[in-house]
Amino acid sequence: MHRNIYNIIYTIVERGEADKIVDAAKNAGVEGATIFFARGTGIHECKKFFGIPVESEREVIMVLIKKSKTEQVLEAIVKAGELEKPGRGMAFVQDVPIVAGIVHLEGCGEKLEKAKKDEQ
């Protein structure tokens, strides 16, 4: 088990926007992401179409990242998703006190870098 060396970044964006968030996160050092669908319940989320309520669909992206890379990855996500603009989405970070089952990540970054160099 790994203790106190990881964070998780959650990003919530409009449906269809997750791919560019994941691409930016990968370019900033993330090795993978989990994406799932959600629906919004905020004050601006419920619109009407011919009098029928239409709920806003969202994508939630989760990335597990070493604490040392959190800021650079978060900055890349904010930029890619234009999260500084109103209504574009949000991102937040949580500490992950204990992680198990990520043995594939240990040393994976170095292996990926070597594989990229070997391809060139």
How would you describe what is shown here?
With 120 residues, the chain is an alpha+beta fold. It has a single domain (2-119), classed as Alpha-Beta Plaits. It has 3 helices and 6 strands, in the order E-H-E-E-E-E-H-E-H. It has a 4-stranded antiparallel sheet, with helices on one face. Strands 3-4 form a two-stranded antiparallel ribbon. A hairpin with a 2-residue loop joins strand 3 (46-49) and strand 4 (52-55). The longest helix is centred in the middle third of the chain and has 12 residues, at 70-81. The radius of gyration is 17 Å and the shape is globular. 17% of the residues are buried. The mean pLDDT is 84.
Overall body shape? globular
Overall mean pLDDT stands at 84
| Spatial ordering of strands, largest sheet | 2-5-1-6
CATH class: Alpha Beta
Query: Largest sheet, if any?
Result: 4 strands, antiparallel
Residues in β-strands, percent: 35-45%
Distance between the termini: 35 Å
Q: Identify the CATH architecture.
A: 2-Layer Sandwich
How is the CATH topology named?
Alpha-Beta Plaits
- Helicity, in percent? 25-40%
Q: What is the strand tally? A: 6
Kindly name the structural category.
Answer: alpha+beta
Give the C-alpha Rg. Answer: 17 Å
Helix and strand string, N-terminal first?
EHEEEEHEH
Give start-end ranges of low-pLDDT stretches. none
Helical segment count:
3
Tally of domains:
1
